[in-house]
Amino acid sequence: MDFTQNKLTKSEWENLEIPVSPSEKQILSMIMNGFNDVNINFNETLSMFSFTKVEKTPEVEYLLYKKYFEDFIATTIQKYGKDMPIKKYGAVGTFNLFAGSELKQLKSADLIRILNLDSNIQVNKSIIFEYLLLDLWKELVKQITKKKQKYAFYLYTLLQLKKASISHINKYVMTIVDETLAHVNSFTKTSEIITNAYEFIEKNTYLLRYEDRTLFKHQKELFTICKNESPKLILYTAPTGTGKTLSPIGLSEKYRVIFVCVARHIGLSLAKAAISVEKKIAFAFGCDTASDIRLHYFAAINYTKNRRSGGIGKVDNSVGDNVEIMICDVKSYITAMHYMLAFNPADKIITYWDEPTITMDYDNHPLHENIHRNWKENKIPTIVLSCATLPSSDEIRPVFDDFRSKFDNSETYTITSFDCKKSIPILNKEGFCVLPHFLYSDYKDLFNCAKYCSENKTLLRYFDLREIIRFVEYINEHGHIDSAYSIDSYFGSNITDITMNSLKEYYLEVIMRLELENWTNVHKVLSDFRKQKYSSTSDIKKIRSVEPTQTTLKSTELTRTNSVCIAPTKQQNISSGILFTTTDAYTLTDGPTIFLAENVNKIGSFYIQQSNIAPSVFQNLLSKIIHNADIIKQMDKLESQILLKEAKSTAPGEKEDSKAMARESGRLCKESQSMMDEINKLRKEIRIISLDPMYVPNTRPHQQTWAPLGEIRENAFVSNISEEVVKTIMMLDIENHFKVLLLLGIGMFTDIKSIEYMEIMKRLAAEQKLFIIIASTDYVYGTNYQFCHGIIGKDLTKMTQQKTLQAMGRIGRNNIQQDYTIRFRDDDMIAGLFSKADYNLEATNMCKLFCSDE
Fold first, then answer.
1. What are the structural domains, with CATH classification, of the chain?
2. For residue range 62-110, what is the model confidence (pLDDT) as tens digits?
3. Long-range pairs for 156-161: beta carbons < 8 A, 24 or more residues apart
C-alpha cells in the first residue's frame, strides 16, 4: 500500500470528475439529508399508482383493481384456494367485499388516461409491486393447497416485504394478501422458519432488492451525537462497507469537516462522492505550507476564466471560506487545520480521522511521528476516530483522559455497530466452516468465547448461518436448553422478528444457556458430522521443471516454469483447496478473490506452476513475450534517438510544445522520419498474446476439464481482460511473470516500479475484471474493491487480531447477497479471532501516540 504523503497527480484529479452512478448518488443524497432527518428512507419500487402517475382517488383505485388484478385473484382462488377462508370473497370475477356501487362515476379523462397506459402496464408488470405481491401470494396459496413445506418461504417473504415503505399500494390487493397471511400465520410454527432460514433469509433475493434505503444505525447515532456542539471524542466502529467513509458528507451539512486519511485512495473516494452531490471540497496532500492546498472548482471564490472554454481557469487557493470538506493526509493535517481555522471557528469544525489504526500494528513506523504531532498540536475540539476495528474504550482510556485535559467540558462517546445483512463464512485450511461450537471441546472455553463474541458482535457476520441452524436445532431437539429458550419460545409467533442478526444473537444465547453435563461428547458429534463447504479431491501435483534449476522470473528472460506434470502424487501435510487455477477454481464464485500474503511473488509463481499449461503452449507463450520484449526495446531505443535528434535541431527560442506538434504532424527531419518509419514497422511485428480458454480459470472449457464431474457452474467467476489491456501490459517494462499471470486473470498488488501497471490493476479491480488479486497485507486498509472471497496466507503469522479483522472486512462489501468465504491457510490465526488478545499492539501505540506529552 502506498502510504507516501505526496501531492495529487494529474490522473487522480481527472478521476475525481467521473460521476458516480445514479443509484449511488441517491444514497449520497440520503446521507446528506439524513443529518437533519435521521429517520429518512426511500424506496424506488413502484406501485401501480406510482407507475401510472394518475391521481389517487377511490374510483381510480377500484378501476385499477378491477382491470388488472381481480381476474388473477379470482382464478387463483378458484384453482388453489377453495379450501381456504379467502374463498368467502366470491367466485371468479365477483368480489362482494369490494363492491364498487357506492363509488362515484370515474372521470372520463382518468379512464382514457388509464386505457392509454394499458400497453405500457402490460410490458412493465415486472417492476410494479402489486404484481410481485400477487405472484408470491399465488405461490403461497398453491404450496399450501399441495401441502408443500415450501409455503413457508412465501409466507416469510411476503411478511418482510410488507415492511417496505412503498407508497399507494392498491388496498384491495393488500386486503387479500393480509387476510391470507393472517390465516397461514395462525398455523405456522417459528421453528419451521428457522429450519429453512438459509434459503428464506440468506439466499432470498427479494429481501435486499425491495427493502427500504435508510441510514445505518451507526450513522443515525453519529449524526445525533454531533448535533451537540460541546467538545467530544467519538470512537466510531462499524463493519466495512456500511457507509462510515461517507458519513462526513452528512456531517458537512452543519460543520466543516477535516477528513484525515493515511490511505489516499480512501480520501479520493470520498472526494469523488462529495463532488457528485456538489459539496465544496479542498485537498491537502503532501503539504508543507498553506500555499500547497488546492481547492476544487466548486469551492473556489476567486478565479480567472479560461478565455477559450469560458470555464474556471486559475483558482486562488488561499481563499477557503466556501470549503465544506477538507481532505488531507496525515502529514498535512496541521497545515489543513490552520487553513480551516482561518475561515471557521473551531467549534464549527469536526476532525474525522479515518482508519487511525493504520500503521499501529508496527512497533515503529515513519508516520508515527506525524500522528503524535497531529494529536499534540490539534486545536479542533470534536474528533471522530472512524474504523472497522478499534481497541475498546478500556484499552485506550489514557487517550480519553488526554483529550479531556485539553478540552474543558468535553465528552467521550463510543459508537459500535454490527449491522450485517449477509454471512461471510470462515473456512479453515481443510475447508470446514468455523464457529465457536466447533472450536472448543471444553464448555468453559466455549462459554467464554460466546461471551466475547456477544461483546464484539462484528464477528457475527463471519458465522455461517447454515451451521448455526444445524446447531440450534440439534440442541433444541435433544433437550439441551431450557424451554424458555427454545426456538418457539424465544422468537414467539412474530415471524418477522426472525432475521439474520437475531438468529446469530440467539445462537450465542443458546451457547451461554446450555444445560448439559457432557459438552465434550456433543462437541464430538457435531464435529464428526460437519462437511466441507467445498469437497475437493485435488492434491498439489509434484512438479518437475524442464530446466535443471528454477530461479526468480526476470523481465528480460522468463525462466521456464512451464512445468511438466508427472503422475499426481499425494504429499503429506499439504492441504487441498487452494488450486485456484485448476481443480478449486469453481469454488470462487460471483466475483473476484483477494489473496493476502507476505510473499506476493511466491504465490504468483505458485499459480503459474500449478496452472497446468501444456509445455508446447507455454513455450509458444514465452517466445512471444520475449519476442515482443525485444521489439519494445528496439522501439524505445529509436524513440530516444528521435527525441535527442529533435532536441538538437530545435531552433533557438522554439518552444517545446511546437516540437511536439511537429512530431505529431509528421514534420520531422529526414533522419528522424526514417526512424519513425522503422518504429511503425516494428510495431506491426508485435505478436498478439493470449491463452486458450481451457487454461483460463472457470471458462466453460476450463470447468469441463477441472470442475467436479465436468459440471458447469454458472456462478463460477471468470476474469474479463480485454485485448487492449493485454497488449498494454505486454508492452510494459515489467517482470514477465506479471504478464503470464494477467493472462490467467490474476493481478498483483505489490511494490513494483511500473506505475502504469499498478494503475491498470486498480482499474481492473474496480471494474471487477480480475479473477484473483494477490496483495500484501498493507492493502487491507480501506480497499474499496468488491471481493466475494478472501484467502489469508499462512505466511501472515505476524498479523495482529485487529489487522486480521481488517483483512476480513474486504470481503462481501457489495449490496447483494452472494456466496462469500474467507479462507485461512493457518488455523491458529482463526483461533485468535474469538478471544481477547493477550497483547493489543494497536491499543498500546494509540495510547503512546495519541498523547499530548513529548
1. 10-38+215-416 (3.40.50.300), 48-209 (no CATH), 440-528 (no CATH), 579-613+691-819 (3.40.50.300), 618-683 (no CATH)
2. 888 988 999 999 999 988 877 777 654 443 344 444 444 445 566 677 6
3. 156/193, 156/200, 156/201, 156/204, 156/495, 156/498, 157/200, 157/204, 157/206, 157/207, 158/133, 159/185, 159/495, 159/496, 160/206, 160/207, 160/496, 161/132, 161/133, 161/136, 161/206, 161/210
